[in-house]
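Comment thread on ticket #2218

A.B. wrote:
> Attaching the input chain for the structure job we discussed in standup.
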Amino acid sequence: TVNDEINYKKHLANIRFTTDYIIDRDDLEQKIKLLKLNNYRDAILNEMKTDIRFDIVDFDGETGTSQIGGQPSLLQALPEAMNNMIFLSQINCKELSNNNLLPKEGMLYFFINPTLMQEGKSNFLQVVYQKEGAFCLPANAYANLQQGKPAKLKFYSAISLPDIDDDWARETFQDYKIDGYFRLINAEKENQLLGY
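C.D. wrote:
> Ran it. Output below, let me know if you need it in another format.
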């Protein structure tokens, strides 16, 4: 009824979560109860995925750590074709928690070519994986790749769910309770590396 919907929206307005992301399955189940989504519990739990999130923290200068900006800590020399690329970030795969999709070791490097991007080319972004090496390249060897002040990435795991526009969400929530689902997932996608 209309009164049920009004009362539910008032209920949602008064809810405060201690975290803006879903920590684990227990946290998800608590939030389902708090949001009065009990009738959708099984459907929601069936869709949950563990993902990898990150926080951006001060860079301590440590070679080989996951970072955004600065210079890459390369394990091997890059191909000459990479000379026009700008370094975006690197991920030390050993630092990833609950990682079931990416390599368990080695480094992932992300580069962008602004010229190719402006030209609308699909290959403007390049990802390089290097498994072996000892961070032996001189720090200034790729000074032309440097982009901005470096910041360290600190990883943690969380739970992700399908977006509100996902077919599953539209088919599952046929009433005003979709507002509760939206509240459940509202802020949970920020700084997300893997998941939905």
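A.B. wrote:
> Thanks. Noting for the ticket: The mean pLDDT is 84.
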